[in-house]
Amino acid sequence: MISVERELIDKITAAFHYLRTGKVPQPIPIPEDLPNNELRQLFTYVNRFLVEFATFTEAMEQIAQGELDVRPVFSRMAVSHSFKALQSNLRHLTWKTQQIAGGDLEQQVDFMGDFSTAFNSMTQQLKDSREQLLDLNKQLKRRNRFIRETFGRYMSDDVVGVLLDMPEGLKLGGEKREVTLLWSDLRGFTALSERLDPTIVVALLNHYLSAMIEIIQQHGGTIDDIIGDAILVLFGAPLPLEDAAPRAVRCALEMQKTMRIVNEHNFQRGWPEIEMGIAVHTGEVVLGNIGSTKRSKYSVIGQTVNLTARIESFTVGGQVLVSPTLISAANPGLILGDEVKVHAKGMRRAIRCHDLLGHNNHPELSLEVEEKDCNVLAEPLAFAYARLIGKRLDEQMEPGTLVSLAHRRAVVEITGPLPAHTNIVLRFELETGEEKAPEVYAKVMHPLEESGKRYLIHFTSVPPGLQAQLHRLVTKEKIF
Amino acid sequence: MFKEERDESQFTWSMLGDIEEGRPNLGPMVNVAVYRLMQFTLRDVLIRDFGVENADRIFFEAGKKAGQAYCENVLSENEDLASFFADIQRTMKELGIGIFRVESADLETNSFVVTVAEDLDCSGIPVCAEEVCIYDEGFIAGLLLAYSGKDFHVKEVDCWGSGGRVCRFTVVLK
After folding, report:
1. Based on the domain organization, do A322 and A349 belong to the same domain?
2. What would the pLDDT profile of A105-150 be if each residue is shown by its tens digit?
3. How do beta strands A439-447 and A454-461 pair?
4. Helix, strand or coil for residue B79?
5. Please, which residues 5-44 of chain B have a Cβ atom closer than 8 Å to chain A?
6. Selected residue of B76, B97, B104 to mutate for chain A interface (largest A Cβ count, 10 A)
């Protein structure tokens, strides 16, 4: 029989009591004098269990706190196997989740019971959502591409951005709305382009258009079309603008002011000076995506467009002509000059347009008053002239004399009456060294006296050689 | 082809034959016990004749050869490591080899911890205080060699044979 001290048995009982009540007991000190018998063996096994249990408890606490890199438990107790499997699964799930977070939605979890089902269902839903998002994104990209292709080329990024942000998209099917139109055109550019090297024509035009487009975009205009050297700009479409007319006015004035910079650039390169006329008009138009399924563009049509073009044809270089409706929409503050009566097809009465000189609130945009002084020539210079009807010359050439001259204007004396704004071609009898008499294009401004013989004309196109020659004929004496 | 003397490996995937044609009725699957019968009797004889170290080396080399062939013939072209592991997981499950899982992957140090649960070789064997999945170690090394062109050291640290419930392998670049 092995004799057992009651105190030793109590220690084992206490250790298990602590285990059952949530504590982690320390190994039981084994008395040194305890014989190497079954009782010592019992204490040794109990202590091994307590050590493994303590290690296991510590590992479980760490796992419970999410510390998955806890040191593996070297125990062969069944509970340790489950712990290892749990640790392994959690680490695996962490890795899987990291892959999904990285965008790999093909990841699946197998053989983890309900968790596998839930996890794989979540992944599938994420995958479906991503596909839906990709699909929506594709649709959005298609819509954005359409908007950019339709408007992006000739519209400021801000306006394109607003269009892209509109969730309902644009109504491009067609609508009638009041807008302000700005029509600009270079005076005499067709004749000029025929005299110049084509590469210079393109370079000159591109430089001019770049400068104008930038100003138009700054003022919120939408460039509807560029036809050669002419630009049609909309204010108030596709996005409505409450201040469309004042914007168009400021834009037109700044465009004219900028022509000085454009011409300085031309001068530095030996290119000819160019002049631009602008018409600004407010009226109702039909707006929409016009064309066929293969080719269409956002555009405007209507009598307002035609009338704007008509007003523009009455301008001379450096001039901005504004219509009565524009004046009503843009006032107060407009500084207006002479009245110009514009006759348009289908209209009984002439439209009383005005020369726009500036705006009271924007003194920096005031246009220079057209040169009034002309220098008298020492001897009047003879020429022959013909009216220009559309692009066609009147067959009958009439004689005339040039009596005084300024940079862009001149006083001529002729026999027949010439209505204001008539376009004419003048051929001078000068020693230019060229076989063909040099041609000058001009617009009749108005008669200078009641007799109707003397007229003020505005040059729209003068060959460079002839211009220099004409100015050599000028004296310092002024006639008016 | 099978019994020629050789100094270098001559194994090719085609040596496995046309199983569909050859087993039209029984099909490609076999009882796991039969696989283990071959595996453990072979190990038994190899240890007896060549010792434990040599037997382990032979099993590792054979597993490595199998892993390379498996990668080239069973797995798809995978652009990244995550896809590669997912492909291993999927095919090993489909073929009943085991449930392959990645516990951690450190791409900077090229070190990984992977597990195979319900492993073909060892799951359910009596506890013998030994890690016995040497063939699996070679198999994983072969997979990674074929995929990356790099040699990895693979060591089994938990095994059913040593009392675990999953086989856990540490993988580090040699």
Report:
1. yes
2. 888 888 888 888 999 999 999 999 999 999 998 888 887 777 666 6
3. antiparallel
4. coil
5. none
6. B104
- pLDDT, chain A, mean: 83
A320 in the same domain as A397: no
Q: What is the pLDDT of residue A420?
A: 80
Task: Check whether residue A357 and residue A402 sit in a common domain.
Answer: no
pLDDT above 70 (res A478) = no
A321 and A415 together in one domain: no
* Contact in structure between B15 and B2 (CB atoms under 8 Å): yes
Nearest to B164, CA basis, from B123, B135, B121 = B123
Number of domain units in chain A: 3
In whole angstroms, what is the distance from residue A415 CA to residue A399 CA?
A: 8
Closest residue to A92, CB basis, from B102, B118, B163: B102
CATH of the domain at B32: 3.30.1380.20
Determine contact, residues A354/A342, Cβ cutoff 8 Å.
no
C-alpha distance from residue A373 to each of A89, A264, A380, B141 (Å): 97, 23, 17, 98
Interface of B with A in 126-165 (CB under 8 A): 127, 157-158, 163-165
Shortest CA distance from B112: residue in chain A:
A95
Number of H helices, E strands in chain A: 11, 16
Helix, strand, coil percent values for chain A (each to nearest 5): 40, 25, 30
> Is it the case that residue A69 has pLDDT exceeding 90?
no
Sheet strands (E) in chain B: 99-106, 111-117, 152-158, 166-173
B168 interfacial to chain A (CB closer than 8 Å):
yes
State whether residue B8 is helix, strand or coil.
coil
**What pLDDT is recorded for position A189?**
81
CA distance linking residue A58 with residue A311, whole number of Å? 92
A234 and A179: one domain?
yes
Q: What contacts A40, CB < 8 A, 6 or more positions away?
A: A30, A34
> Contact A92/B83, CB-based, under 8 Å?
no
Q: Is residue B38 pLDDT above 70, yes or no?
A: yes
Give a yes or no: residue B8 inside a domain.
Answer: no
Nearest-angstrom CA–CA distance, A280 and A210: 20
CB burial of A358-395 (b: ≥16 within 10 Å; e: otherwise) equals: bbeeeeebebeebeeebbbbeebbebebbbbeeeeeee
Q: What is the pLDDT, as a whole number, of residue A477? A: 43
Q: At B94, phi and psi to the nearest 5?
A: -60, -35
* Residue B81 touches partner A, C-beta closer than 8 Å: no
In the prediction, which pLDDT does B58 show? Answer: 96
3-state SS assignment for residue B167: strand
Domain boundary among A334, A365, A396: A365
Query: Which of these ranges, A179-193, A371-385, B8-22, has the smallest mean pLDDT?
Result: A371-385
Domain range for A272: 172-365
Domain boundary among A70, A96, A122: A96
Same domain? For A462 and A431 the reply is: yes
Helix%, strand%, coil% for chain B, nearest 5: 45, 15, 35
Q: What pLDDT was estimated at residue A267?
A: 87
Q: Is residue A433 scored above 60 in pLDDT?
A: no
Residue among A16, A81, A72 at smallest CA distance from A47: A16
Residue B5 lies in a domain: no
Q: What are the residues whose beta carbons fall under 8 Å from the beta carbon of A82, sequence distance 6 or more?
A: B165
